[in-house]
Amino acid sequence: MAIGKAEFKPNQLDHLLFEAFPGLVIRKDLTQEIRGTSKAPSYVIEFMLGKYCANLFDDNEVREGLRLVNGEIARYIPRGDETEMVKAAIREHAPHRLIDLVQVELNEKLRAGVYWASLRTANIQNVNISPEIVKKHQRLLLAGVWCKLVLIYDDDIQYNKRTYPFVIQRLDPIQISHVDLDEYLAGRALFTRDQWIDVLVRTMGYEPKHPRMTQRIKLLYLVRMIPLVENNYHLIELGPRQTGKSFCFTEFSPYGSLLAGGSITVPKLFVSNTNPPQPGLVTHADVVGFDEIAGSSFNADDDKNLYKSYMENGSVNRGTIPVNGDAGFVFNGNIEFDPRNGMLAEHLFKPLPASISDDTAFHDRWAAYLPGWELPKLTPEMFTRHVGFILDYTSELFHRELRRINNYGTLWEQWFEAPVNQWSARDQRSINRTFSGLTKLIFPAGVMEKEDARLLLELAMELRLRVLVQLHIMSSQEFRTTELSYIDKDTGETNVVRIIGEGEGNSEAF
């Protein structure tokens, strides 16, 4: 749909967000307008839109900004079939500018070790990049970084009598350079709880006023973002296709990484055996998503033990090499049945690879099981035409500021307490981490009312309980818990959270 014909009707929340965060918000319909024309993820597109579409309510300025962004995409982001044209442009018109996803690897077999960059969209390999640039931007060694590039051509560069003429002269990652937590908190104070939840849902690109967007559905969407604000948060979500499960790893943040199938390897995740060893994704990413997990292999017991150790402690030892990381693991998989209508499997971990599907010790490490079958399949009318944060702003603020906060997990204890001897240490840690993540997202200043805390606590308990119920189905003698309770300190009342049916989470809060 052309932007000139699309109707944008700003509402009160649009104006409030624009006034509270000038220059840090964008009309999300503009992102949708461009996404289909470029391989660049949403956070890159919105970074570019933010430069040219500052006045979101001036349709002429927006249309001109959209024209300029489309021009930059056409000029600087290559298509895969333009490889030879790009090579020729670098040779004939250097310095040549590009925007591309850059990934770097060390070729230790060449003289003194050489770093090679790959331009993933342009499909150009063996591009020279200096150790100084790599040292400054170490994430280039992992899943890659979208960057603005200046390239030159130097046919004097040779290794083993072969010429490698393409050189990255300058590299600037595409990201907002500065975020201020105090400014963010001051802006957040202007919104009610429900308004802020709607802002976050719109930032993800969805329309919170859609009839299917109940409060529960909105909160489940926010749970997907918890690994971006909470260290070592491990989450599993199985559900139907086309519900946006991988969005937070591919579109929302450059600090998320999505692995699929055969790309899941221990060296890539933890540490390589090269000399010197190269740290893996868990040391640099905020969250590692495992997509289509049902098709992956976890056959080696030693590999499984590394996963278990990391999920428990945030660290592993591979040989003599210790690895510490803050990244969370998120397992995504597709199931086309709704457990609320009857189970088609023994338990809700059964669709995972056979080597781990029945491993209770593995699954006891999940902080939460998100019921993906409750989330609606995404249709065009579910995408918002309103204002949300520029994704690069939220990704930087989440990464640099909110992840550093470590004292929100027990805020609920002002009003509530856990029964003696009911919650295990893992239950406590899991519930606290989910509560902390939701608090960082919805109440980033750590200030809330009692009923706000109850809402988040009951959801955190339910998501952990779903794990426990499945463990009980798998081994009832070892795992006896099928409900969790908490006590209201004011009234002394015990509140029970249960799973109703095989997969549907329910408590008095919902």
Automatic annotation (TrEMBL):
<protein>
    <recommendedName>
        <fullName>BREX system Lon protease-like BrxL N-terminal domain-containing protein</fullName>
    </recommendedName>
</protein>
<feature type="domain" description="BREX system Lon protease-like BrxL N-terminal">
    <location>
        <begin position="19"/>
        <end position="153"/>
    </location>
</feature>
<dbReference type="Pfam" id="PF20442">
    <property type="entry name" value="BrxL_N"/>
</dbReference>
<dbReference type="InterPro" id="IPR014061">
    <property type="entry name" value="BrxL-like"/>
</dbReference>
<dbReference type="Pfam" id="PF13337">
    <property type="entry name" value="BrxL_ATPase"/>
</dbReference>
<dbReference type="InterPro" id="IPR046838">
    <property type="entry name" value="BrxL_N"/>
</dbReference>
